[in-house]
Amino acid sequence: ERGGMIGNIDSMGLAMQALEATEKFYAPREWDCKQAFTIVSQYEYHSTMAIAQVLPALVGKPYIQAGMMLLPCAPWHHAGHPPSPSSLPVTTIKVHYSIINELQGKHFNIPIEVDVPAGSTLLKVLQAAEEKEPENFSFKTEQTSWGPMVVSIYGLAANPKDRTYWQFLSGGVALQEGVGTYKPHNGEHIKAVFSTY
Length: 197
Known about the structure:
Blueprint (H helix, E strand, L loop, with lengths): L11 H11 L11 H9 L5 H12 L3 H8 L21 E10 L6 E10 L4 H11 L1 H4 L1 E6 L2 E7 L2 E2 L6 E7 L2 E2 L14 E8 L1
Parallel strand pairs: 1-8
Antiparallel strand pairs: 1-2, 3-4, 4-5, 6-7, 6-8
């Protein structure tokens, strides 16, 4: 129903592994993995956890065999180090960023526009906004196995008891990646909305 997408792009690998391992138990319909393979093979993964989970499903091998199979393919494998970021051209993009709370306490909708180097992650956008207007755009993160997770913005913290969290959207659609991996494009408007689940 979602063109092969299962959960979000970062959870696809784990879902594919589970479905591959248990497909003989899914009767009467057969799982058509071609759509899911098409999605993950066209996506450029940045999260180490997501890569580790999608790799075995893509090559049909266990973790150890899959890793050994692809290690020589890394572009810097023979050079011994990744390419230097200073050798890449740097251009600046403008990102519109808003923080919105219409859920608890004093409601707010605060916009800002920041300039960040092209290719920056959403986390860099949040940091630029905080640097520009710390009184409005201060935020806190917690490190997870998937990367940094925003737990508080403008002093308003997510709370599992209230089932609240900060959801990031672009064009009204929830982002499929976290702040540490999602890369906004020039002119994009990202909204952080205090939400419930």
